Amino acid sequence: MIAAEAQYRDWMLAGLSGDRAAYSRLLAQLGSHLRAYFARRVGADAEDLVQETLIAIHTKRATYDPALPFTAWVHGIARYKLIDAWRRDKRRATVALEY
Questions:
Q1: What are the backbone angles phi and psi of residue 5, rounded to the nearest 5°?
Q2: N or C: which end of the chain has fewer CB within 10 A?
């Protein structure tokens, strides 16, 4: 995983510097990485979460600190997207009130 971490980080830094090809490779590889991450947690419903997370990564890419591990930053975003999905899908128990 350390090799993937270094490669992801290099692609991210190149993408932040304007290298479109490196950024495209990063997003493609992260898609596979995130599919596995979400599949372990939610099963077959992972694709929407992958797309939401990739959009969030793209939107927040300027907040990445190169001094910190890249995958930790990605997993933080993915975790928040997963929690948001659970909140959205949570069924609320209702109790009828007798008057």
A1: -60, -50
A2: C
Q: Is the Cβ–Cβ distance between 34 and 54 less than 8 Å?
A: yes
Q: Are 20 and 61 in contact (CB under 8 A)?
A: no
Q: How far is the C-alpha of 88 from the C-alpha of 67, rounded, in Å?
A: 34
Instruction: Output the pTM of the full model.
Output: 0.82
Do the beta carbons of residue 69 and residue 12 sit within 8 Å?
A: no
pLDDT digits (tens, 9 = 90+) for 24-70: 999 999 999 999 999 988 877 789 999 999 999 999 999 999 999 99
Structure confidence at residue 91 as a pLDDT band (50, 70, 90):
low
